[in-house]
Amino acid sequence: MSPAFAADHAPRWREGVSGQPFGADYIILDAEGRTLRGLNGTAIEIWKLCDGTRTARALVEQVAQRRGWDVEQVLTDTLKFLTDLARLGLIDELEEAR
């Protein structure tokens, strides 16, 4: 099992990966055209912020503040989500935000 995504690292979509609405669903396509579906609204919001310009913690603070949620709970769930995305080859984990 790969290590967990670090809160002080920045998530960035891997080259060739894209996300888009598809009917009532939202899909993420990897570089080979395989899809990941079934993202909820929060996951979609997090995905859209994975541009490498902010750390995972900063991303979570933005989402949690907008929704009025506890940052630490959202952080725990988001780091699990980012770890899964990295394991699937959909994002890279940058040590510094760009």
Residue runs with pLDDT of under 50 for 5 or more positions: none
Overall pLDDT: 93
Quickly count the domains. Answer: 1
Coarse shape:
globular
Keywords:
about 40% helix; two-stranded antiparallel ribbon; 5 strands; Arc Repressor Mutant, subunit A; PqqD_sf; about 20% strand; alpha+beta; 3 helices; PqqD family protein; globular; about 100 residues; three-stranded antiparallel beta sheet; single chain
Short description:
InterPro entries: PQQD, PqqD_sf. This is PqqD family protein. The chain is an alpha+beta fold.
Please describe what this structure looks like.
This protein has helices at 41-48, 56-67, 71-87, and strands at residues 10-13, 18-22, 25-29, 35-36, 91-94. Helix 2 packs across helix 3. The N and C termini lie far apart (27 Å). It has one domain: Coenzyme PQQ synthesis protein D (PqqD) (Arc Repressor Mutant, subunit A, Orthogonal Bundle). The chain is α+β, with helices and mostly antiparallel strands. The mean pLDDT is 93. InterPro entries: PQQD, PqqD_sf.
List the helices and strands and how they pair.
Elements: E1 10-13, E2 18-22, E3 25-29, E4 35-36, H1 41-48, H2 56-67, H3 71-87, E5 91-94
Antiparallel strand pairs: 1-5, 2-3, 3-4
Helix pairs in contact: 2-3
